Amino acid sequence: MCAATLGVSQMQGLWEVQQLTLEGKEVTPFFARWLEFRDDGSFIQGVGKRIEEIGTWEQLVDGSFNVMLTDGRSSRLNGMRLNVDGDSAKINIIDEGQLLVASLARVQTIPLAAWDMCIGEWEQKNPDDEEQLFMFVDHRYVHKQDGASSSGYWIISTNLQDLSIIEDNGQITNWTISFPADSTMRWLSEFGEQKEFIRAN
After folding, report:
1. Nearest-angstrom CA–CA distance, 80 and 59
2. What domains, with CATH codes, occur in the chain?
3. Where are the beta strands (DSSP E) in 86-171?
4. Are 163 and 150 in contact (CB under 8 A)?
5. What is the pLDDT of residues 130-183, one digit of tens each?
6. Which residues touch 119 (CB under 8 Å, ≥6 apart)?
7. What is the pLDDT of residues 76-108, one digit of tens each?
């Protein structure tokens, strides 16, 4: 197989980023980041259901890939080199003179990010504590507990682990968020307080 076609058929499909290293050192993980390379020469990159880049890809004679966005700008993937081994792959990119390596795994569905998993109706896991939480797509929330209610905005940071609750009165509380099970959401505050919710039926 010539260099101009090496890896092209193998790379087509949906991939999830498993690990990123910069000059051999692991960098902040990109949970739920994915890439899709299509057989029509188009590609999409995103995090969860949020799409970040759309463009085209083609392999050059030297084996590297030309990856361009639909507005004509270069993608952050432009110039990448690819090594595919079955359902695993590695992308090498020179980023500001340093080697960035992304380890990928082939997947069948787009992985969900924390901001996708948050959306819906939740209840306090402790049955003795009547607490309801509604988290909406527009990042608004409504919290009900013991006959009182509050509302505001919820924001998840780019590392997909830090949650900020911003009440309409301006008060902000920060939490670390995790999902130990599909229907369970856990919050841990910076002061050690813990909340655990189950998804309402």
Report:
1. 9
2. 8-106 (2.40.128.270), 114-199 (2.40.128.370)
3. 88-95, 98-106, 120-124, 131-135, 140-145, 148-156, 162-167
4. no
5. 789 999 999 999 999 888 899 999 999 866 688 999 999 999 999 999 998 889
6. 135, 136, 137
7. 889 898 888 889 999 998 878 889 899 999 999
